[in-house]
Amino acid sequence: MLELLSRVNVQVNDNIYLKNPESSELGRKIIAGSIDLIDSIGFECFTFRKLGQEINSTEASIYRYFENKHKLLLYLTSWYWGWLEYRLVFQTANIGSPVERLEKAITTLTEQVEDDNSFTHINKVKLYHILIAESSKAYLTKSVDAENQEGFFAGYKKLVDRVSAIILEINPTYKYPHMLVSTVIEGAHHQRYFAEHLPRLTDSIEGEDSITEFYKNVVLNAVKTQ
Amino acid sequence: MLELLSRVNVQVNDNIYLKNPESSELGRKIIAGSIDLIDSIGFECFTFRKLGQEINSTEASIYRYFENKHKLLLYLTSWYWGWLEYRLVFQTANIGSPVERLEKAITTLTEQVEDDNSFTHINKVKLYHILIAESSKAYLTKSVDAENQEGFFAGYKKLVDRVSAIILEINPTYKYPHMLVSTVIEGAHHQRYFAEHLPRLTDSIEGEDSITEFYKNVVLNAVKTQ
DNA sequence: TGATTGTTGATAGTATTACTATTATATTTG
DNA sequence: CAAATATAATAGTAATACTATCAACAATCA
């Protein structure tokens, strides 16, 4: 099943890029290289010049694929949301009980991404690390409204909607399904970041997966009552 | 009481700045001006050159107060956590019931900051707006560990600890008080941002304060059960 | 086959950013 | 009044975030 998943090609809004990076060898090197480089030096220090050196190409060539590094970050995060939604659909298929389905969904949304041995150019573990540390920078900008209009955040919204629908199945009168789901997704990222860098803001012990347990607990209690 | 609060001077770790901006007229203009400017053009577009023009001073003069714009953002966020903690202490004083105290605390942490008529150089409404859109950029950097060592995030941690203590008063066996509190603080910022820019990720209606209601509900249910 | 088109690499150039350094002048303090 | 300090003005540098041009090569189409 994981192999099957790895071959699925995730769709990304085609106004995010100038030229589809999936369409060429150089394009795939740009994606693979940017995941490595952003993960290692951080988004602020990352430049197209450095990426060019890393992948033995040039700044100008990379600019033919992406207008700027912000668009590249949008691409990576969009790709991730698409991939996550695909995984979610797969992992919650054939579960009759909506409560169990919700539990499984929370696990998918909050669990640590492990190496999936898929051997594509996209390193999921590093990409997840980028999502944790950089993804909010993709929408915390002055261009968010224009980019939202163009549909750049559609994948994220779709994912949130999908899990919200399970919540409404369990409790059709629950007032805040979207808030709950987006709180869980963003919260899990923050908690993983805090566990690594600011441990006094969390109670998570490295190794143990208390983050998933915590959010399952929060969601089920919130949905059941009220 | 609000007047009293406005006169309190909030303490900020003095390694964040080169020269205390509270110590001079120019320093206060730097703070006031940066709040206006970051709120209006966003942290990415904000530069010390533009700030100099805004306050009729120069780039070089501002550099005598802050090493770089990142340190200035750290200053603003630290100041805000200090101010919020002060408000929290004030507003939860003399409430006997810990459940009521927790409810009041969640309100303080999540409610929209309104104009407090304090007439200081710090515009609280704009500062809150900056916290919502920019505060996570203060710690989502490669320098986070070094800066954490220096105590730059102490104010945030202290605030989280203080509310966690109330939770433990209610339920001494609750395993995740810090996670719960940091989830609420960060979550409330995200939800306010989403309500304005990405409404499909939230269920918040402008005007109504569903965000505070939502988090109160989540916290009380999580703390009571388990 | 030969002309056209598209892709990449190489190089260069510009405006802006993120600073640092120097000096003159004004203000405060001792 | 002298000394120290704060600020403004100016200039300069290295890096960043691009844009433009052109040559080399491959693919393709007529």
Describe the structure.
The structure is a homodimer of 226-residue chains. By secondary structure, chain A is an all-alpha fold. Chain A has a single domain (2-224), classed as Tetracycline Repressor, domain 2, CATH 1.10.357. In chain A, 63% of the residues lie in helices and 0% in strands. Chain A has helices at 2-7, 25-41, 48-54, 59-63, 69-92, 98-110, 124-134, 144-149, 154-170, 177-197, 210-224. Chain A is globular and about 55 Å long. The N and C termini of chain A lie far apart (38 Å). The model of chain A is unreliable at 1-5 (pLDDT under 50). The interface between A and B is large, with 50 and 50 residues. The structure holds a DNA duplex (30 and 30 nucleotides).
List the topology elements:
The structure is a homodimer of 226-residue chains.
Chain A: H1 2-7, H2 25-41, H3 48-54, H4 59-63, H5 69-92, H6 98-110, H7 124-134, H8 144-149, H9 154-170, H10 177-197, H11 210-224
Chain A binds a DNA duplex (30 and 30 nucleotides) through helix 4.
Which key terms come to mind for this protein?
homodimer, 226 residues, Tetracycline Repressor, domain 2, globular, DNA-binding
Entry summary:
Two copies of one chain form a homodimer. Chain A is mostly helical and 226 residues long. Chain A contains eleven helices and no strands.
Order of helices and strands of chain A: HHHHHHHHHHH
**Overall pLDDT of chain A, averaged?**
92
User: Nearest-angstrom radius of gyration of chain A?
Assistant: 18 Å
- What's the CATH H-level homologous superfamily of chain A? Tetracycline Repressor, domain 2
